Request: fold
Amino acid sequence: MLITLTLMGKDAHLVDEEEFEDGLKAAMNVFARHNADAKACADANDKLLRDELLTREEAMMCVIWDEADTAAFQASTLGWLRRDVDIYLGIED
Reply:
C-alpha cells in the first residue's frame, strides 16, 4: 500500500519546501536502514498512543517510528534558532 508521509503539528507551516524534503528523506532513510514498513510503524505507534498492548515486533516498530520522527524533525529544522516547535512525522489521509 502506498502511503504519503508528511510533517504535522501547529508549526509545520514554518518548514519550507527544501526543509520538508530533507525531513522526509531523513525519515525514509531510517525506515530503509531498518528494512521497516513506514505504515506498519505508524500503525504500531498509533496503537501505543491509544495505550493498547503491543507485541514485541510492534514495540520495535514504535522505536523505529520514534527514530524516524526525530530524524525528520532534526533534518527539517536544521539551523533554526528556536527548538520549541511542534513538528512531527505523520501520514496524510
